[in-house]
Structures are given as structure tokens and as C-alpha cells.
Task: structure prediction
Amino acid sequence: MSLEKFTYDNKLTKLFLYATILWGFVGMLVGLTAAFDLIFPVLNAGIPWLTFSHIRPLHTNAVIFAFVGNGIFTAVYYATPRLLKTPMYSKKLGAVHFWGWQLIIVAAAITLPLGLTQSKEYAELIWPIDIAVVVIWVIFGINFFMTLVKRRMEHMYVAIWFWIATWITVAVLYIVNNLQLPTSFLHSYPVYAGIQDALVQWWYGHNAVAFFLTTPYLGLMYYFVPKAANRPIYSYKLSIIHFWALIFIYIWAGPHHLLYSALPDWVQALGVVFSIMLIAPSWGGMINGLLTLRGAWDKVRKDPVLKMFVVGVTAYGMSTFEGPMLALKSVNALSHFTDWTIAHVHIGTLGWNGMLTFGMIYWLVPRLFNTKLYSRALANVHFWFATLGMLFFAIPLYFAGFTQSLMWKQFTDAGYLAYPNFLETVTQIIPMYYMRAFGGSLYFTGVILLIINIRKTVVAGKFVRYEEDQAPPREIIVHEENEKLQWGWHRPLERKVVKFSLFAFIAILIGGAVEMIPMFMVKSNVPTIAAVKPYTPLELQGRDIYVSEGCYLCHSQMIRPFRSETERYGEYTKAGEGVYDFPFQYGSKRTGPDLAREGVKSLPNYKPNSWHYNHMLNPQKMNAESIMPPYPWLITRDIDIASTPAKINAMIRLGVPYPKDYANKAVADLKKQAHEIGENLRQSGIQVDDNKEIIALIAYLQRLGTDIYKDK
Result:
């Protein structure tokens, strides 16, 4: 049989690999800075873009879309041609993909610290960048799927399956969750509000973790672990079960982020049930990865690449067991809003994504540069820095989470909250925050060691851009009846790109459709409350400032129906309260107290306008133990009054019942309310102009929770 000769081009693999290392360094440095910001809030030095609430979304986006994203593309552009026995379809599309993705990352690195954000976790990027993400993702998809079409290998290996599911699902998730109505080039409102927005966001947020941080890295695992171990994957049949069960079940689990919230119980129940079911396919993948190394444990002890793969796959197993446990309502009642969740997430990212990426880099660079790794000993040191850093990071946060939750829920014998002052629970866990910063420093030091090792390896070798290979025009296809006897129904499916992709698309679509369509079509799922009114123009501007400054990162606005929470914060949150909240503001973490009832004067925690002014100017002046950073720029920056009519018109288009032509009157109402608040502050001895952002923020904070109390 004649063989066709062809060439692999490693240029894109090299570029994406370099970008992975660069953005890993940047993203982890920003995360380490954020960790120290929580210990020393004055580190921002009065500079907005150094404040924790501005750099935290930069950290998450950098490590997810820049570090992990480039790691995914490194693996795809290296492994796909070799698995399919054909070069990538288009070098030009690949180049556009690479440079376009890097420009998106740079745009995110500029806009997020400046407070240009949509405020939804892992979906903070403003709408023009969202469009760029979709365009570049489509370009990547064309290149990837056209390579599948012109492949020489009929059979698609399991790694390819996971990358097919990744591309399809990320496209669906990103587009649906980021449907926005722009008010300007830099600002927009989501088309969903309140509890509906929360459901869509966590359908996206949970599955962004699933289909950007998990499934593509499972493809990476299925390719690089057998390669590094020089052994076949443990069980091909297990990989089939693992793949289809995982992509079908994962998509249902998003509501477990909203347990005990205003989300209807039936949706919460679905989230819990499917989250528990996730243990089986997730551990199937872990077992398949680890047992691939059976009989090679002596090699594992000596090889830093395999050691990193083992810790990474083990971390995947641990985090995918803990995730379903956190979805149990009894456990979630303790864990939600605490640092427990932060610890859980970082076991996955530092362990699973970090370790697999490091292992891939150490395995790949010597082959790309036709040389040996500069120092295996240094790579082993990196392994221990990374492993110990992950443990020193996560374990203290587990204790912090337990401490927070138990203190929040503790009552005295007389029936009163044992720790009514929220700050008491913060100061108690500061030592754990020091340990977290120490662990992060260890992990980051390991990244520096990797950079040194890789740099010296590259210098010692010579880049092998082109690699020659040969294969038959098509793999010999055995008679279908014999193939069915050996492989059952799945083997023929592995040869049909369109059919396989269609089945994957249907599998990932079912769960989201079942959960979301009734939430939008059945009105009883979001009961209306007559007393809930639209925000005034000043309050709307204040809400946008609240979002821009990242206040949602430390303060929730979701009071759960627990006695400890209603005693501390007031009436639990209802679904009908958020019908004019574009986007929703339930939050995920309480570094500070819940603000859902912040403006209710009858509650013991009510604070006057002057308190809010002084608190934003200098939190430590109000309480020396506060870890909140100051926001002095709010005192000097002017409200963007000119944007008010466009924002009101956008709200009207989204269904908010403002009077007809109210946009023409909104500025006058804004100035009137601003003058009232400014005059109140001046009577308290605070000299402030009516047009400053602090006025709008105070207006918003004083509005929170007041509608529901009027309804009583």
C-alpha cells in the first residue's frame, strides 16, 4: 500500500506553549497580590486598579482563559495532527487564532482593573471583548473541525472527543450567558434579571469549569499521560462511559451554586441529584488516568513529569468528589459564602490544571527543541514546591471556611447570635490568610523554577519546526460486522465527525433546556412583589458603580432562610425582589456582611449616609480591624450623568416599567435625589459635591431591601 508523506508544523504549539508560561506567571502573580491585599488592605495605595476587588476578576480570567486556555491550545495543536495523521487545516487560521486570543487577554488585562466589567463570575468581560471571543472561538473551531474532516485516521481517539465537546459546549455557554444590551461601547446590561440571570450565569459558571477547565484537560490527560508513561490507556471502554456520562450529567449541576437561594426548589433538587451522579463519571476518568500507570510506579517515583500527572489526576479525583459533597444541601448550608469554596476551587486549578500543564510543558519542550530537559532535579524541586504550595494554600482555607460558618451560625444559651459583629469572624481567620499567602508564594516560586528550567532547555536545543510523517490515505476499515463484535455501537460513531458532534450537542443541551425553559416560560417560578419598584436614576448609577468597583466579590445580596441569617441580616431574599436587577447580585463569597437589607432603617445594622461616606473613604477609621481597602476616588470622581438617558432607555427595552419618555426626565430626578443626599452629608459636617460617585453609591446602598419591608 502506498503511503502519503506530510509535515507537522510545530510553530503554533511553541507559541501557545510560550503564552501558557507567560500568562501563568502573570495570572498567578496577580492572584498572589490579591492574597496579600486581603492581609494588608493598604497595599493598593489609593490606586483603583490595585484594589482586591479590581484585580480578583483579572486573576480568575488570567488563569482560566490565558493560562489554561493557552495550555488547551498547546495540547490541541500538538496532539490533533498526530492523532489524525494530517497537518492542521490552515496555518493562517491558526495564526489568527493565536494572536487574536492574546489580544483578547491583553484587552481583559486593561479593562478589568479599570472596573469595566459585567460582574458575572468567569464572564466579566465587556461586550466588545465577548464578541471578539466568539469570533476567535469560531476561527479555532473551523480550523479544528476541518482538520477532522481531512484526517487520514478514520478512528478518532478519545482525546479528540473531549475537544469536540469542549468547542461545542463553550460556544453554547458563552453566547447564551453573554447576551447583552449595550448602552455604550464600554457598558451593557444582560438581557436576564434576578433569579433568571442567576440560573443562566451558574449554568454557564459551573459548566465553564466543566468544559473549559475539565473536559479539554481530560483530552490532554488521555493523550499525554500514556505518551509520558509509554503505555496504552487503561480502559478504552471506560473512556467511552466516562465521556458520554460526563458531558450529559455535568450540564445539569449548575443550580447547586444557588442552594437555599430564591431559586425554585425543583431546580435546586435537579442540581443536587445530578451533582451526586457526577461522582461516577468523574472518578471513572481519574481511575482511567491513574491505572494507565499501573506497573510503572518505579518510573513515576523518578520522573517529575509523571509525578505531576499523578498529583494532577489525583487532585481531579479529590475535587470532583468534594464538589458533589458540597452540593448536598446539608453540607452547602455550611460551606456556601465561605473560604471552603475557595479552597475547593484551588485544589482543582492548582492541582488538576496546574500540575497537568506543568507536566505537559516539561514533556513537550525537550521534544520541540530536540534536546534533554536542562535539569530533572530542578523539575523535581518544582514538583515539591507546587505540591506543598497547594496544600499550604488550601488546608488553611478549609479551616477558615469551617470557622466562618460555625461562627456565623453560633447562638448563645439565651438565644442571641454569639458573634453579631461580622468583623469578629473576619479577624478570627486572618492567620489562615497568612498561610494562604505563604502557600501561594511557594506555588509561584515553583513557576519561576519552571521558567528557568525551560529557558535553559530551549537555549541548549534547536527548535524543530517541521516533523515528517507518513500514513495510508485512509486507515484500513475492517468489515463492519466484525467491528461491531469487537467494539459494539461506538466504534462506527468514532468515524463520523458530524454525527458524533451532533450527539454531543444534544447531550449537553438537554439539561440546560429542562432547567431554564420553565424558568422563563412559567411565571409562577418568579412570583412578583407589588412593592418592588425600579431603581431611581441615581440608584441605577450607584448600582453600576457598585458593580464596577467589584463590591459583589466580597458582599452577597442573598439572605438564606436560616435563623442565623435572618437574625443577622433581616428577612430572607425572595425571587420577586430581583426582577429589576440587571445583572443579579447574589454573590458567591462573604468576606464582608450581606447587603441585601442594607438600607432598612428598622434593622439594628442600619447605617446613616455619613457612615457609608467615611467607610468608603477610610474603612480602618470606622473599625481598625477591617480588611476592606479604602475607595477615596469615589469622593472625587464625578457621576457619569450623561450616560443616564441611555441606561434608562436600555432598562425600558428590557421591560423595566419606567414612565413613557422618562429618559428625558431622568437627569433632573437624579440631580434632585443627589442634592438631598449631599445636603444630608453636609449637615453631618461632610463637605461633598452632589455630583460625586459616592453620592450615587450611597443612594443605591440605602435602597437595598427597602421594597420588601414596605410590602409588609
